[in-house]
Amino acid sequence: MKLKDKVCIVTGAASGIGNAIAHKYASEGGKVAIADLNIEAAQKAAEDIKAQFGTEAMAVAMDVTSEEQVNAGVQAVVDAWGTVDVLVSNAGIQIVNPIEEFQFSDWKKMLAIHLDGAFLTSKACIPHMYAQGSGAILFMGSVHSKEASKLKSAYVTAKHGLLGLSRTIAKEAGPKGVRTNVICPGFVRTPLVDKQIPEQSKELGIPEEEVISKVMLGQTVDAEFTTVEDIAEVALFFAAFQTNALTGQSLVASHGWFME
Ligand code: NAD
């Protein structure tokens, strides 16, 4: 059990990648808080985890762009379980549009969910991690933390920004035993990606099959999607890693779409 009794908060864990990470952490003995905007789906995920693994799990209503809700959600976890050992700032959305048509309100929404969310959740968890002299923070970046694609100005900007925030926290928090790293997945078939396929097809003027085969998987080594399980494995590796040898890093898991 790599995370036995570790208190783990995963944002956006009611669906997709975050949900798989929450299940993986519970399978390794972690107590998992599913923090999500969608409280009904979060409650269902927590019930599912308790039934499947017999571990403790709780749902936390949280809009990661609200300082008040983030602070209240983290406090609820600390009240229940005493501390926070692992934070996965994963909640995210996608909005695609060419730059000249990108609504300013959508730009601000994207930066708020991805960047404010990472900042606010880190800020709320770090004092508890410092108090115990240990902790692991993970940000859900993307290949788009290192590479650009058409139509994704706000997403690419936000995902690049997470690298800077992670590296800064790594320097500030390292001496106090807190590590921070970024996971950079390629395309993973979740609701976030399913929504984009028809949208990109329309914007780029190509069939949906071509969005998948060329835009999403064209540069992979084997034309395969990365899976939520693949990313959950990486998230376990980072969360369970014991020393500051691995901090301020980012790991791409993308079937070779992006190599460095
Ligand atoms: P998803 O749509 O399946 O899940 C996202 C979850 O985030 C949902 O449960 C949603 O309710 C929650 N959420 C959205 N806005 C929120 C907010 N303001 N506060 C709290 N919760 C909120 O998406 P996913 O594909 O699992 O994406 C998870 C993360 O992985 C995102 O940060 C995304 O950018 C990143 N990512 C996804 C892919 C991919 O191909 N799917 C690739 C790289 C990175």
TrEMBL record:
<dbReference type="InterPro" id="IPR002347">
    <property type="entry name" value="SDR_fam"/>
</dbReference>
<dbReference type="InterPro" id="IPR020904">
    <property type="entry name" value="Sc_DH/Rdtase_CS"/>
</dbReference>
<dbReference type="InterPro" id="IPR036291">
    <property type="entry name" value="NAD(P)-bd_dom_sf"/>
</dbReference>
<dbReference type="Pfam" id="PF00106">
    <property type="entry name" value="adh_short"/>
</dbReference>
<protein>
    <submittedName>
        <fullName>3-hydroxybutyrate dehydrogenase</fullName>
    </submittedName>
</protein>
<dbReference type="InterPro" id="IPR050259">
    <property type="entry name" value="SDR"/>
</dbReference>
<dbReference type="InterPro" id="IPR011294">
    <property type="entry name" value="3-OHbutyrate_DH"/>
</dbReference>
<comment type="similarity">
    <text>Belongs to the short-chain dehydrogenases/reductases (SDR) family.</text>
</comment>
